[in-house]
Design the sequence.
């Protein structure tokens, strides 16, 4: 499971069913249960997303280990586009934030 920060003020773009609509737009058919949205797409056997408050997006994935390189590449591109639109952060910004959190965590140890 991955945890992603949502950019301040960006939650309005995914609240009240908008996250469901975004997933439909990007991945196609989705199912909603227990306040989580689930789909499958290309190399994702299962992709489940949900929010916690207005600041955090959770993503749980199950990958198809038999997927070919083209499917894997398409999945990565599509997933990054989804995360950008869902969190408000580009992949570079997400990586920078994660690196900062890791460094902060090590300095506390």
Sequence:
């Amino acid at each position: 499971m991955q945890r992603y920060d949502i950019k301040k003020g960006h939650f309005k773009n995914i609240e009240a069913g908008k996250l469901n609509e975004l997933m439909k737009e990007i991945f196609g058919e989705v199912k909603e249960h227990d306040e989580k949205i689930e789909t499958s797409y290309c190399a994702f056997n299962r992709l489940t997303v949900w929010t916690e408050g207005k600041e955090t997006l959770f993503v749980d994935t199950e990958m198809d280990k038999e997927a070919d390189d083209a499917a894997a590449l398409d999945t990565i591109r599509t997933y990054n586009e989804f995360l950008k639109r869902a969190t408000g952060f580009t992949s570079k910004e997400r990586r920078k934030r994660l690196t900062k959190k890791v460094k902060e965590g090590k300095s506390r140890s």
Q: What stands out?
A: The longest helix spans residues 69-87. Residues 43 and 76 are 9 Å apart (CA to CA). The radius of gyration is 14 Å.
